[in-house]
Design a protein that fits this description.
Chain B: This is Polyamine ABC transporter permease. The complex is a heterodimer. Chain A is mainly alpha-helical. Chain A is built from 19 helices and 2 strands. In chain A, strands 1-2 form a two-stranded antiparallel sheet. Classes of the chains: A mainly alpha, B mainly alpha.
Chain lengths: 393, 262
């Protein structure tokens, strides 16, 4: 590398540095924080330090030793902070239900005397090794794969083997499947509308093309919230669509369009359609205009010419558009939250619920990680496809 | 052939209708005098615009949106323009190519995922429930638009103009100030407009990072639709759509000016 080029490179790096630092700190760091919250589990280790040492030699099957019990009571007496105690109870209770009553009972007993307490006499649940297993697992490590496993409806059983969660305990797989199906439905509908529309737009010119493209760009530039609000207003039982349908005599009563799957699909298709039309259109206008007449002059029927000439060439745009639409649809939050019912919520709504509603940052982080990974894989494929296209001509 | 033509016309108009009609259909509802968002409109009034501009929650949220929007525009435009200047070469080294990808990544990451991370991290540094926190959050998602817009214009600039200026004795700073930036101005303006529009429309990050004092117009619209829908929504939507059309005209104008320059 010669000196002028190197100094140019240095100048470039100096210029990109401020934004790079900004994004590392305020974009990458929050994502890392979220991922850490999915696997970090410091509460029990912090609250029960002596217990953590005491259980390290325990085989997790035999009855609890006296040393463990004494250490546990000593740790409980050390916890002055009610916040920490609350976090500890929540952590233990999430591993095994029953800890809530057991812990408050035990803490009260521990604070009343300074001497030894017979835990098993206090509550016979302390004789059950499964409670001690939960304490031991929680206290011995500040990291956990519990949330990540729970995100895909798995858990570790008493012997640390990975097993499926009981059917009633979690519904994350259902949510993920639903998110996938809804995103796929929107993508397919967008292809069915977007491909012919882009073909029409590419086949005309002048004001007609301007009009068709304008119709795609105007919604794209309009606020997402305004578009969602518009559909919210139009889809109501007494909204414009239902009044028109009833006026026309298509239906006697209002068709339920809002707070259900149909409404969400309609609104999301409307919002994401431009991302399908534009990539297909940009591929189509690059195709030489004389290909179709050439196919026709060689005797191909228009349908045959379309299937064997235009469609294969347009496919690249369809794939790019589909990836964009599918990727955006996967992470959708606002539209399903406002237009969907309880059974149309996608993975983003569940993440938002865990984060703001339940303050369960571990689960929010774990599900967020799943969504982030899915989106990044799709984006990598998209980038790969579009860079191939750039190299080609 | 006529059948094909007719079906093209039919499909094209139907899709245009599907794309545009919902936006137009809600506009008249902004002028209803009833409390319901139904057709036929019983009578016309501007009461919901009065509500929008006088009711304290709405007024407050409009002011907040302007403060946060201007802050975001300023920060994103400066960071994005400087960053784009570093990426303007057509043949980027692998390091710079990676950096360019990183600059565009905030457009792709699902907002809720970023929101959860920002809430956790911002809480640690006392940035939640502050204007600065919301401006930073909005800047993260707005900055890719500035980079894309400025980069597009920069790559269209004839580098010989800058070389000519330098050969006539202009220092690199003078070249930047007198030649490069004026030529890049249309891209910077469109980038700034996109940044402002992004901030104005942002809901999800605002939900996670902002407190009740930083409630923006978009956030207020979100909770109004969710909790008690009122025609004030249609009035707010009217303002948004009007703004969009104005922005489209400004962008068209700045692009026209750019073409006239070259």
């Amino acid at each position: 590398m010669n000196p002028p080029r190197r100094s140019k490179q240095v100048i470039s790096l100096v210029l990109v540095a401020p934004l790079l630092l900004f994004l590392v700190f305020f974009f990458a760091f929050p994502l890392v924080t979220m991922m850490r919250s999915a696997v970090s589990d410091p509460v029990a280790a912090r609250a029960l330090p002596t217990t953590a040492r005491a259980v390290s030699s325990w085989d997790r099957v035999s009855p609890p030793t006296d040393e463990m019990k004494a250490a546990f009571v000593a740790d409980l007496r050390q916890i002055g902070d009610d916040q920490l105690f609350g976090d500890l109870v929540r952590r233990l209770n999430s591993a095994k239900s029953g800890f809530r009553t057991l812990m408050s009972k035990t803490r009260t007993a521990a604070s009343e005397t300074d001497g030894n307490i017979d835990l098993i006499a206090l509550d016979k649940r302390w004789a059950d090794p499964s409670y001690w297993q939960a304490v031991s697992v929680a206290a011995s490590s500040t990291f956990t794969d519990r949330n990540l496993l729970a995100a895909v409806d798995l858990q570790r059983d008493a012997s640390s083997a990975i097993t499926a969660l009981p059917a009633d305990a979690s519904a994350n797989k259902v949510i993920m499947l639903r998110t996938f199906v809804m995103a796929l439905t929107v993508t397919v509908v967008c292809v069915l509308i977007g491909l012919p529309f882009a073909m029409i737009a590419a086949s005309v010119d002048g004001w007609k093309r301007q009009l068709l493209l304008g119709a795609v760009l105007l919604p794209l530039w309009t606020s997402l919230l305004v578009r969602t609000a518009a559909w919210f207003i139009l889809l109501q039982d007494r909204g414009l669509i239902n009044s028109v349908l009833m006026q026309l005599g298509v239906t006697s009563g209002p068709v339920p369009l809002i707070f259900n799957r149909i409404g969400v699909i309609i609104a999301m298709t409307h919002i994401l359609l431009p991302f399908m039309v534009l990539p297909i259109f940009s591929v189509l206008i690059g195709i030489p205009k004389n290909l179709m007449p050439a196919a026709a002059s060689l005797g191909a029927h228009p349908v045959r010419a379309f299937l064997y000439v235009l469609l294969p060439l347009a496919l690249r745009g369809v794939v790019s558009g589909s990836l964009l639409v599918f990727m955006s649809a996967l992470g959708y939050y606002i539209t399903p939250a406002l237009i969907g019912g309880a059974r149309d919520q996608m993975i983003s709504s569940v993440i938002a619920y865990y984060a703001t509603g339940a303050a369960n940052w571990g689960m929010a982080g774990a599900l967020g990680l799943v969504l982030l990974a899915a989106t990044m894989i799709l984006y990598a494929i998209y980038l790969r496809l579009s860079s191939e296209r750039e190299v080609r001509p | 052939m006529n059948v094909l033509r007719f079906s093209k016309l039919l499909f094209g108009s139907a899709t245009v209708f599907f794309l545009i009609a919902p936006l137009i259909a809600i506009l008249p509802l902004a002028f209803t005098d009833s409390v319901f968002l139904n057709y036929p409109i019983p009578g016309y009034s501007t009461r919901w615009f009065e509500e929008l501009f006088t009711a304290s929650v709405w007024q407050r949220s409009i002011v907040n949106s302007l403060i946060i929007g201007c802050g975001t525009t300023l920060l994103a435009t400066i960071l994005g323009t400087v960053g784009a200047l570093g990426l303007r070469d057509r043949q980027l080294s692998p390091v710079l190519t990676t950096i360019k990808t990183i600059f565009l990544l905030p457009m792709v990451v699902p907002a809720v995922v970023l929101g959860v991370g920002m809430q956790l991290m911002f809480a640690r540094y006392g940035l939640t429930n502050t204007y600065l926190g919301v401006i930073i959050a909005h800047t993260v998602v707005a900055v890719p638009f500035v980079v894309v817009n400025v980069l597009a214009v920069l790559q269209g600039i004839d580098r010989r103009l800058e070389q000519a200026a330098a050969s006539l004795g202009a220092t690199p700073v003078t070249v930047l100030k007198q030649v490069t930036l004026p030529l890049a101005l249309p891209g910077i303006v469109s980038g700034a407009i996109f940044a402002f529009a992004t901030s104005l429309d942002e809901v999800v990050l605002t939900l996670f990072v902002a407190g009740p004092n930083q409630r923006t117009l978009a956030r207020q619209m979100f909770s109004t639709i969710r909790e008690n829908i009122s025609p004030a929504i249609a009035a707010a939507a009217f303002v948004f759509i009007l703004g969009t059309i104005l922005i489209a005209i400004v962008l068209k104008f700045s692009r026209g000016a750019k073409q006239a320059n070259i």
